[in-house]
Amino acid sequence: MSKQEANAPHPRKVPRLPGPLSLARLEEVFADCADFKKRQVYLHGDSSRRAAVCYIDGQARSERLNDYVLRPLAQDPMLASVPEGELFALLERGALYAHGCKRETELDPAVFALIDGSCALFLEGRDECLVFPVATEEKRSVGEPENEPALKGARDSFVE
Fold first, then answer.
1. Rounded to an integer, what distance in angstroms lies between the CA atom of residue 134 and that of residue 147?
2. How far is 59 from 23, CA to CA, in rounded Å?
3. What does the alpha-carbon distance between residue 73 and residue 60 come to, in Å, rounded to a whole number?
4. Which of 34, 101, 129, 131 has the most other CB atoms within 10 Å of its CB?
5. Sign (positive/negative) of CA torsion 105, 98, 114, 24?
6. What pTM does this model have?
7. Once rounded to an integer, what is the mean pLDDT over residues 46-65?
8. CA distance 101 to 72
């Protein structure tokens, strides 16, 4: 161990969640998380072409998720007619209305993107996803307690 490493704070293991990405592994990571949501969508109503959209409820803004990701998936007729091999590239290059898109192949960055308020789009049979930013700006703040009287001191409370 070098002198610089000895004086550094506790080292963080990177990646924290090693290994390849898949929808099943992402569901394992969030198995005990009540806010983890997965929505199955038929591409333009075609039941043979399915996508799964994963997000954290409360971190992702539902209006953005609906307008920028779910609505184009369900209503764009091009998604039903494009060849299967070109579908992922089409989604990555602008078939959805998100201002940013990132392809993820590792579990660690996909998990942290969801925690930061993005959604992950998985196509059936692919072990990679597209991550779209749909984060909400709403933040929880400290406020005055509503159901607990304060005897002395500050009158602040936390949501949880």
1. 34
2. 19
3. 17
4. 129
5. negative
6. 0.76
7. 92
8. 15
CA angle 75, 37, 77 (to 5 degrees): 10
SS3 assignment for the chain: CCHHHHHCCCCCCCCCCCCECCHHHHHHHCCCCCCEEEEEEEECCEEEEEEEEEEEECCECHHHHHHHHHHHHHHCCHHHHCCHHHHHHHHHHHHCCCCCCEEECEHHHHHHHHHCCEEEEEECCCCCEEEEECECCCCCCCECCCCCCCCCCCCCECCC
Does the CA dihedral 69-70-71-77 come out positive or negative? positive
| Residue positions counted in the chain | 160
Cβ-contact 52, 23 below 8 angstroms: yes
- Closest to 105 (Cα-Cα) out of 84, 89, 83, 126: 126
Pairing of strands 102-104, 36-43: unpaired
Residue 85 one-letter amino acid: G
